[in-house]
TrEMBL record:
Transmembrane segments: 41-60, 76-95, 134-160, 166-184, 216-237, 249-272, 284-303, 309-332, 353-369, 375-395
Listed InterPro entries: MFS (IPR011701), MFS_dom (IPR020846), MFS_Na/Anion_cotransporter (IPR050382), MFS_trans_sf (IPR036259), Sugar_P_transporter (IPR000849)
Keyword field contains Lipoprotein: no
Classification via Gene3D superfamilies: MFS general substrate transporter like domains
Pfam families for this protein: MFS_1
Location of this chain's protein in the cell: Cell membrane
Major facilitator superfamily (MFS) profile domain ranges (all copies): 10-399
Protein name: MFS transporter
Length: 414
């Protein structure tokens, strides 16, 4: 059994790595204002650039989860951090739209294994009763980054420029990879590893079994919808506020710290609430949150002032953060630890496909409507409605059968 001190140290390192990944993803949404000028991009090509990372990231989700279950999460974690650090640094050397898209796509491939591997590590090191809060702590890095990245981006981009900024982020990634290699280690031949080895002996069997569970399909849809809203807003709100609401880069940085703060509060509060929810109530809490998201999105784009817009954005981030924390917690709590890497990879594929599709779709929509974002907001409201349906129909049917098969395999091997 891993000690509490070791568990907390591992969680702190995962938090650190996830923070760096979020820095790269979120700073691109601000850097793209400068990149667009340097590379002479339209709204459509800007959307393509913003989506290229998520194409690679989505492709790697299921293989990343499979690799974490098959060969161990530590190896996948190290490979992810090393490769994403390389391509983050190379982002600063891009010379054209094509080179930038290719580099960001490969960066997505590199980072794609991180979340399934880190989720697997949480399931192996934390008791079930603590996994929701552990996941919320790791995911809270996104909230912290959204809080500090607007000001940090404005400062860095106006002083050292976007190219040097990405090179520095890549160098920091190399340091984090070294910390992972040295500190994240597991005892050999423990019970969890034994069960993991049994469960992954037939990889086709794992995928087939998981895809037969209705919950997995609901989670794929829910992941897609909530991340469509999240990344649609994150990718385009900086551009929207500058071009449609008249803010300069520094003012943008300051006002966006408020939604960043509420995102952080939502993640921490969500982790606490999720661990307290009775089994089966997750779907009701998630559905209510998605309904609030839809209403608030409408209020955002119809807001008469920047102050009102930021107020609604701050509130909507609370509910988005809760749903984003809820979905992986459902996997960690209701599925066997031996398959959480693969299951997380499958479900998160939906979320990252949304990250690929939505920024690009919004770019085309904005061009089609002569710079108006109204139709894009209506699209995001539609995703919130679909997410409600996916969560309301969430069922744990066949999950118990999967657990029973794992227990039987473990008993036979013993």
């Amino acid at each position: 059994m891993i000690s509490k001190r070791t568990r907390n140290w591992i969680l702190a390192l995962l938090f650190l790595g996830w923070s760096l990944g979020n820095i790269d993803r979120y700073i691109m949404n601000y850097a793209v204002l400068s990149i667009t000028k340097d590379l002479h991009l339209s709204a459509s090509t800007t959307g393509l650039l913003l989506s290229s990372f998520f194409a690679g990231y989505a492709i790697m989700q299921m293989p990343g989860g499979w690799l974490a279950d098959r060969f161990g999460p530590r190896k996948v974690l190290l490979a992810a951090v090393i490769s994403w650090s390389i391509f983050t640094g190379l982002t600063g050397a891009a010379w054209s739209l094509t080179s930038m898209v290719i580099i960001r796509f490969l960066f997505g491939i590199g980072e794609g294994g991180f979340q399934p591997a880190s989720s697997k590590i949480i399931s192996l090191t934390f008791p079930k009763a603590e996994r929701g809060r552990a996941m919320s702590i790791m995911l809270s890095s996104g909230g912290i980054i959204t809080l500090i990245i607007p000001i940090a981006s404005a400062t860095l981009l106006t002083t050292i420029g976007w190219r040097t900024t990405f090179i520095i982020i890549g160098a920091v990634g190399a340091i984090i990879a070294a910390l992972y290699w040295y500190f994240i280690k597991f005892p050999e031949n423990n019970t969890e590893d034994k069960m993991n080895h049994i469960a992954v002996s037939s990889q086709k069997g794992i995928f087939r079994s998981l895809f037969k569970i209705p919950m997995i399909w609901n989670l794929i849809i829910a992941y897609f919808c909530i991340y469509a809203v999240n990344w649609g807003l994150a990718a385009w709100i900086p551009t929207y506020l500058v071009k449609n609401r008249g803010l300069d880069l520094m003012s943008l940085g300051w006002v966006q710290t408020i939604p960043g703060l509420t995102m952080l509060v939502g993640i921490y509060l969500g982790g606490y609430i999720i661990d307290k929810l009775p089994k089966g109530r997750e779907r009701l809490a998630g559905s209510f949150s998605c309904a609030c998201i839809g209403i608030l999105l409408y209020l955002m784009f119809t807001a008469s002032s920047v102050t009102s817009f930021i107020t609604y954005q701050a509130i909507v981030n609370l509910f988005i953060a809760f749903v984003i924390t809820l979905l992986p917690a459902i996997i960690l709590k209701q599925l066997p630890s031996s398959v959480t890497g693969t299951a997380m990879g499958i479900a998160n594929t939906g979320g990252q496909l949304a990250g690929f599709v939505t920024p690009m779709a919004i770019g085309f929509i904005v061009d089609a409507f002569n710079g108006s974002f109204n139709a894009a907001f209506w699209m995001l409201i539609g995703f919130a409605i679909v997410c409600i349906v996916a969560l309301l129909t969430l069922s744990d049917k066949k999950v118990d059968l999967l657990k029973q098969k794992e227990q039987e395999a473990f008993a036979l091997d013993a």
